[in-house]
Design brief:
This protein is mainly alpha-helical. It has three helices and two strands. It has helices at residues 24-41, 55-63, 74-82, and strands at 69-71, 88-90. A two-stranded parallel sheet has the order 1-2. Strand 1, helix 3 and strand 2 form a beta-alpha-beta unit.
């Protein structure tokens, strides 16, 4: 989207709608809880990007310990890689039949 509907710090009254507004403190707290659970359980976390489809959220998850992201479509993987996500698993690539 060019330009984006808002940036961090934009007053709510100035945000073009429709828009998803995320409380970053709550988001970071939830990511930290999942990261701690993974660490104490001895598992690695690879969130599925379908829940957010956002490079910014993917990078936040990775910064807190996620090993990468999982997607279903090659196009979603390409978008994440262009945004700086280094480890993307395409779990179900689309099939085309001639």
């Amino acid at each position: 989207m060019n330009p984006p509907p808002a940036e961090i710090g934009t007053p709510i009254a100035d945000i073009d709608t429709p828009a998803l507004i995320v409380d970053l403190d709550v988001l970071d707290r939830n990511i930290a809880k999942m990261a701690e659970f993974a660490r104490t359980s001895g598992v690695r976390v690879r969130p599925h990007a379908k829940t957010h489809k956002s490079v910014a959220i993917a990078l936040r998850q990775i910064a807190q310990g996620a090993v990468g992201q999982c997607v279903q479509k090659v196009g979603e993987a390409e978008a994440l890689v262009r945004g700086g996500v280094k480890d993307v698993l395409v779990s179900k690539p689309g099939c085309r039949r001639a």
